[in-house]
Amino acid sequence: MTEMIYLYDGSFQGFLCCVFDSYAYKEVPTAICCDEDSVPALFDTRGIVTDQGHAERVYRKIVKCSPYAASLLQKCFLTCLPQREMRMYHLVSKLLKQGSGFLRDPSDETLYPVLRAVRHLEGEAHLLKGFVRFSQLGDVLGGEIRPKNRVLPLLRHHFCARYAGDRFFLYDRTHREVLFYTSGQACIRPLDDFQMAQPDATEAHYRLLWKRFYDTIAIRERYNPRCRQTQMPKRYWSTMTEFQDATYFTPQSSCAAVPDPGAPAGISAPETPSGFGPSAPASIP
Amino acid sequence: MDVLEKLTILTDAAKYDAACTSSGGNRTAKKGMIGNTSSSVAGCCHSFSADGRCVTLLKVLMTNRCIYDCKYCVNRRSNDTPRAAFTPEELADLTIGFYRRNYIEGLFLSSGVFRSPDYTTELMIRALRLLREEYRFNGYIHAKAIPGTAPELVEQLGLLADRLSVNIELPSEAGLRILAPDKTKEAILAPMRQIRTRNLQSKEELIKYRHAPRFAPAGQSTQLIVGATSDSDFHILRLTQALYQQYRLKRVFYSAYVPVVEHALLPAKTVKPPLLREHRLYQADWLLRFYGFRTEELLDEHHPDFDIRLDPKCSWAVAHPEFFPVEVNTADYEALLRVPGIGVTSARRILSARRTGSLRPEQLPRLGVVMKRAQYFLTASGKLPEGLRFTQDGLLRRLIAAERPAPDFQQLSLFDAMA
Predict the structure, then answer these.
(1) What was the ipTM of the complex prediction?
(2) pLDDT, tens digit, 9 for 90 and up, residues A95-121
(3) Cβ–Cβ below 8 Å for A228 and B49
(4) What is the mean pLDDT of chain B?
(5) What is the 3-state secondary structure (H, E, C) of chain B?
(6) Chain A residue with Cα closest to B100
(7) pLDDT tens, position by position, B61-115
(8) A11 CB near a chain B CB, below 8 Å?
(9) For residues B125 and B23, which has the higher predicted lDDT (pLDDT)?
(10) Cα B185 to Cα B111: distance, rounded to the nearest angstrom
(11) pLDDT tens, A61-78?
């Protein structure tokens, strides 16, 4: 059999068309790559054209075999699993060949990597439901995250229900996407760059209050930074209010001295400069 | 005094309360109201403090002024500490401000006893009513019911809050008499009984009438202090079991006693809080609630305390060799749950996976079974995991080593052994 690399447009429909074409051409691709990040390779390539009709046919067939597999594939497509397209491809072809029985066994070698990636995605989305920090910018709430997986579609329902009567946006800096919500309508759009505005006086005050609360709530005798880091890995800290440095708590238009954000008697949270890797945690003073 | 200063004082005074959960509510968003309660079973943690505890609610006291003089408490009247009180408006502004920025899931309101239990509860009700009715807050509220409050006030509090809790604090009446002379067992249990009865009643009414008012829909919880008195783990766990069964509590929290004051009746200030003991109690608590264990199986009069080196489930397994090995392909769910290293999730996965074919030992880690513990207690298709050899004597040692990868070992001397 010849080696063949499939190039598709990076959408879920595009992936379904890869499945369709591989059956049409009676071949198994060696790899499935997105157009954008394709590099010249020794193997032949085949550009896959996204056809809405083909995608729908494949999707209907998958749902018919197993609705569970369909939702699993949709979620897996959002993960950061290396070679996720090929793993998903193998899952689909196994499903079509053997039926849905093997989906009951989470240790199945085709299913296991996909399941793990989806669990990682769902775990990250669950954590971020809590760890996202919004700022009041005029009459809009704005937040920023740097997740490993594309979690925005999973966060959408949660935050739209929470802020049903509000307007907000949530920017995913890793994948350069943004979730907008206003008056009952939500959408996810690509957005290349974005800078968060400086806080006004009220916003800065609430940030300060929160930091003070956070530093005070810890019990010194129980200080356990390892436990904290297990529950809340450091890669989330860079977008969280409690780990920012003093400038984050200074309002835009005033040069007046603000009170020190840390609590005098509490355990001050270590600062992580935004945009860089996590710094080493400061020890208790 | 400004809000920042008040927040500092009243947070500092509230931090010893262990409960901080937002689970159990399932109120969806309502038009014209702010927020909802978390739809996830586990609630939603918004941060973790430097001691590794979850922060999900704005945990503050209404006031830290207190007429009681409980020996173990930072807010007792004889303690020289700055006192403050929130106004209902300040508290509501804080809650809404924090909630909108996704800092918190809701409010945990407790209070020192100011003037009298009734007066304090009225203050809390006023604050919560303002928050619910004027500020239209629809998120989670956990309120503390103070022992000795009139039932009518507890009733009002329960209609405003999602979860109520009454802290037992000291696990025995004797401890209560010595350390908290202003509280009695009866005064603590009365509101707990009332909350249980009203909660059940409200659930019944909801079946008949869709818009019946909900009384504490997320149930009630309590807290026990561990290590302030000489009560054994057996005593504490038996009390816990009774609370779950008779009072239908959602959670019992344990709080390792942090010495805040030098007192002849309490552990010295230099004593470290018994964190590992607290951890073992939580593990046992989970065994009671999700694994079908009973207190009497885990501990008895001759072994009143947990082995600090080993988790309760492993301890039980080591003491009951007749129950093992469990064959994963044929054992029922209850038997699987008794194997150390198999939890609720992995047991369910085993049940599902073995319908497709018989399981082999090398599949088990991928099903979520923690083999470093489970391997000694199970077989798969009649086989032990490859290359595993152990004796019943070595088992305990190996399990302890598995729990602590880097033990603080002791240099043995040849001559010590001879002496």
Answers:
(1) 0.91
(2) 999 999 999 999 999 999 999 999 999
(3) yes
(4) 90
(5) CCHHHHHHHHHHHHCCCCCCCCCCCCCCCCCCCECCCCCCCCCCCCEECCCCCEECEEEEECECCCCCCCCCCCCCCCCCCCCCECCHHHHHHHHHHHHHCCCCCEEEEECCCCCCHHHHHHHHHHHHHHHHHHCCECCEEEEECCCCCCHHHHHHHHHHCCEEECCCECCCHHHHHHHCCCCCHHHHHHHHHHHHHHHHHHHHHHHHCCCCCCCCCCCEEEEEEECCCCCCHHHHHHHHHHHHHHCCCCEEEEEECCCCCCCCCCCCCCCCCCHHHHHHHHHHHHHHHHCCCCHHHHCCCCCCCCCCCCCHHHHHHHHCHHHCCEECCCCCHHHHHCCCCCCHHHHHHHHHHCCCCCCCHHHHHHHCCCHHHHCCCEEECCECCCCCCCCHHHHHHHHHHHHCCCCCCCCCCHHHHHC
(6) A134
(7) 999 999 999 888 889 999 899 999 999 999 999 999 999 999 999 999 999 999 9
(8) no
(9) B125
(10) 19
(11) 999 999 999 999 999 999
B247-261 residue pLDDT tens: 999 999 999 998 887
Q: Is A101 on the interface with B (CB under 8 A)?
A: yes
What pTM does this model have?
A: 0.89
Name the residue ranges covered by the structural domains of chain A: 4-122, 132-190, 201-285
CB spacing of A131 vs B47 below 8 angstroms: yes
User: A222: nearest CA in chain B?
Assistant: B51
Scan residues 69-88 of A and list those with Cβ closer than 8 Å to B. Answer: none
From the CA of A241, how many Å to the nearest CA of chain B?
9
- By CA distance, what is B42's nearest residue in A? A126
Tens-place pLDDT, residues B343-383: 999 999 999 999 999 999 999 999 999 999 999 999 998 88
Please check the confidence at residue B334 and state whether its pLDDT lies above 70. Answer: yes
List A residues 163-182 in contact with B (Cβ-Cβ < 8 A). Answer: 163-166
Which domains does chain B possess?
Answer: 3-298 (3.20.20.70), 312-403 (no CATH)
Instruction: Tell me how close the Cα of A132 comes to any Cα of chain B, in angstroms.
Output: 7
Residues B183-209: what's their mean pLDDT? 92
